[in-house]
Structure formats: C-alpha cells, structure tokens
C-alpha cells in the first residue's frame, strides 16, 4: 500500500510542482491568500474531497474532507500558504501547503481499504495572526486523532520545540508642546517608550535563559521640535512554555506602567497579534515519521535532533490533538529561513523533489498509525500525559 501511496504522488507530481510553483510566484500576505486558497481548494475538489470554506469567517481558510465508508482514525494534514512582506515565500509555505495536499492525495489512494477520514486544514496567516489559534479555540481539531505537517529547511530535523509567544503593543499618550519654546508644557510619550526599552533591558538579567523579548518603535513623533504626544512600541515576548510566558508578560507590564508613571503619560496595552502556545511534539508520532524517512533512504546521521525555531501557531493545535512538525531538507545549501537566499532556493527543482519526498513520508506515517492500533494508542496516551 505504501507503494500505491508513492506511485499516486509520482503520478501527479507534475501538477503538484506546478501548483507549488504558482503559489511561490504569486506570494500573498496573511488572510489575503486568495489565489493560493482557491487553487488548493480546486485541486482537492478535483481529487474527490469535499470543501468547507470559509471557516470561522476566515475567508481564505478551508477544511477539505474525504471519509471512507470503513471507519477509522481522523488524520489531519496542515497547509500553510501565506508569504512574508517584501520577501515573498522565504519560509517555503508554497512547499508546505503542496506537501500536505500531496500527502492527502497519496493517503486517499488506500484509505477506502484501511478505513478512516482525511482532513486537510487550510490555515492562513501563520506568520502573523495565525488562523490555527481561533480554529483550535473553536474545537475544530478536538476530534482529530493526529495532525501532521512538515516544514522545508536546509536539513532533515525531527519535530522539536517552539516558543510560546504574546505580541503586545504599548501605546503612550502624552501632551504636545513646542520643544524649544515651552517643553515644560508637554508630556513626552516618546520618553515613555524609551524608558520601557531601558526597563526591559534591565529586566533581562532576572529572566530565565529561554526568554526572548524583542520590539520596535512604530510611532515616535512627527517632528523634532514638537514634544511627541503619542508613541507606540510593539514587542514579541516569548519563552519555552505558556506559564512562564504569562509570568514574563506581567513583568514587562510592570515596566510599561513604570514608564508611564515616570513621564506622566497614559498607557494602553493590547495584543496586536494572536498568542501562540509552545509546540508539544508527540514523540511516538515523531519517531514513526523518522522511521519512514529512514525507509526512504535518508541516512540516520543526516537527521538532526529537533530544535527551537521560534514560535508557531501549530503549538495551539498540539494542545488539542497529537501533533508533529518535522523539517524536510529541500536545499543542499545552508541558508536560514526568512532570507532571500532561501526563498530563491525554495523555487528550484531540488526543492520540489524534497517537497514530494516529504509528502510521501507524511502519508506513509499516517498509514502506519491508521493500521497499527497499538501505535495510535501509545500516541494518544502520550498526548494525554503531555497536556
């Protein structure tokens, strides 16, 4: 049956590469992925999947489903297809979405015989206001037995960790005045923002080493001779787990309130993007993915231990069902994600072949879990303990 899966993906490889190339050549920002979403839904519909779209009033989100007559587990493949501002698909989401779609098509070739349901979740805006957050909160993954996706990279890497994250905006409201003639009449909102940065820098020494805090000033005044009456800073606050992230956010809030008190400004703090939980990789599911990678001819010494690569809205999914997020090698040159170099390499024939390999490994892993009740039970037991 695994041969059937592989031959099905190979049979459609030209169309799959064309789809990925089209999305790569037409990058769209989060929640604006009209072309990508439409092409993915069209392709899935052509392969016999029923389409639900939009989802939760998210216009470019979708859930595609194929249910066999024979009962069995619900398998979820995750698709991401948003691009980065100015850089385009420098994170390889055109490969991710097509990989998930190809895996679903491959698994469908055997699902009527082994039993079960295949779902493909189209999840917009992973880079910003990730749709997996509201989709998870709404319970759309709660009945899923396991969820799979793989990310393109310059190496093979096991599913690892990610950082929980809050995105906080701090707005300071002061009073404008002439900076030379009557500065004493003003209340300087920019000074409050600068004090916030200084306070956070002093705070770092008292935080655990896995914390990451980084921010920018998005508004700091209109002219040098006017006391700024309004200034804004945006920060990402991250740590290895949700409880410590919450604790760190409270400490940063104290810094922000202190800056307001020192300058006489009024403070307004708000979330400007969704909060992401840390990824809880399911090790039983991850090990099965690795075994299938080895079976495809990848040497064990080529597969790295999972690392932290930032924050993922997939972390929220991993609180709802067993989930993995391994990395697939799509380039032989070592370039980091979110760079022009990786973007260009992710559009080469080498990258598309890596995408097809990843699709086969994803589909084979799903097959193994479906036909092995003991493995599925171990995956679910681990999930229950981890959550």
Give a quick summary of the entry.
GO terms for molecular function: dipeptidase activity; para-aminobenzoyl-glutamate hydrolase activity. The protein is an alpha/beta fold. The protein contains twelve helices and 14 strands.
Textual characterization of the structure:
- The strands form four sheets. This protein has a six-stranded mixed sheet, covered by helices on one side.
- β3 (74-79), α4 (93-114) and β4 form a beta-alpha-beta unit.
- The chain is built from twelve helices and 14 strands.
- The mean pLDDT is 97.
- With 387 residues, the chain is of the alpha/beta class.
- α4 runs parallel beside α11 (349-371) and α6 (189-203) packs across α7.
Helix percentage range: 40-55%
Structural class: alpha/beta
CATH fold assignment of the largest domain: Aminopeptidase
Could you tell me how far the N terminus lies from the C terminus, measured between alpha carbons in angstroms? 33 Å
Instruction: Name the shape in a single word.
Output: elongated
Q: Rg from C-alpha positions?
A: 23 Å
Question: Low-confidence parts, pLDDT < 50 over ≥5 residues?
Answer: none
**How many strands, which pairing sense, and closed or not: the largest β-sheet?**
6 strands, mixed
Mean pLDDT: 97
Count of domains: 2
H/E element sequence? HHHEEEHEHEEEEHEEHEHEHEEHHH
CATH class of the largest domain: Alpha Beta
Name the CATH superfamily classification of the largest domain: Zn peptidases
Instruction: Strand order, main sheet: write it out.
Output: 1-2-4-3-5-13
Second-tier CATH architecture of the largest domain: 3-Layer(aba) Sandwich
How many beta-strand elements?
14
- The number of helical segments is 12
Q: How much strand?
A: 15-25%
């Amino acid at each position: 049956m695994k041969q059937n899966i592989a031959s099905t993906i190979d049979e459609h490889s030209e169309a799959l590469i064309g789809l990925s190339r089209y999305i790569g050549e037409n990058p769209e920002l989060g929640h604006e992925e009209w072309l990508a979403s439409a092409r993915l839904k069209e392709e899935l519909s052509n392969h016999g999947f029923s389409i639900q779209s939009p989802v939760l009033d998210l216009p470019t989100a979708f859930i595609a489903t194929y249910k066999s007559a024979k009962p069995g587990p619900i398998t979820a493949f995750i698709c991401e297809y948003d691009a980065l501002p100015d850089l385009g698909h420098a994170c390889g989401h055109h490969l991710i979405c097509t990989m998930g779609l190809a895996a679903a098509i491959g698994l469908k070739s055997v699902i009527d015989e082994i039993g079960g349901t295949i779902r493909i979740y189209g999840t917009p805006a992973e880079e910003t206001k990730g749709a997996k957050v509201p989709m998870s909160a709404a319970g759309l993954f709660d009945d899923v037995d396991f969820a799979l996706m793989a990310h393109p990279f310059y190496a093979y890497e096991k599913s690892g960790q990610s950082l929980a994250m809050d995105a906080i905006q701090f707005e300071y409201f002061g009073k404008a005045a002439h900076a030379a003639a009557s500065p004493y009449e003003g209340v300087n909102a920019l000074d409050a923002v600068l004090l916030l940065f200084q306070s956070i820098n002093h705070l770092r020494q008292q935080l655990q080493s896995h914390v990451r805090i980084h921010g920018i000033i998005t508004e700091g005044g209109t002219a040098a001779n006017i006391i700024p009456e309004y200034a804004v800073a945006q920060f990402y606050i991250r740590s290895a787990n949700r409880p410590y992230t919450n604790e760190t956010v409270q400490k940063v809030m104290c810094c922000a309130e202190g800056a307001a008190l020192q300058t006489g400004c009024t403070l307004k703090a708000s979330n400007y993007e969704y909060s992401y939980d840390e990824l809880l990789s399911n090790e039983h599911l991850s090990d099965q993915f690795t075994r299938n990678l080895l079976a495809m001819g990848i040497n064990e010494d080529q597969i790295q231990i999972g690392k932290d690569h930032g924050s993922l809205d997939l972390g929220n999914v991993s609180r709802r069902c067993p989930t993995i997020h391994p990395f697939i090698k799509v380039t032989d040159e070592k370039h980091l994600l979110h760079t022009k170099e990786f973007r260009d390499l992710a559009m080469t024939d080498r990258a598309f072949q890596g995408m097809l390999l990843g699709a086969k490994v994803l589909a084979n892993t799903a097959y193994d879990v479906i036909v092995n009740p003991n493995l599925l039970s171990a995956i679910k037991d681990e999930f229950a303990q981890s959550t």
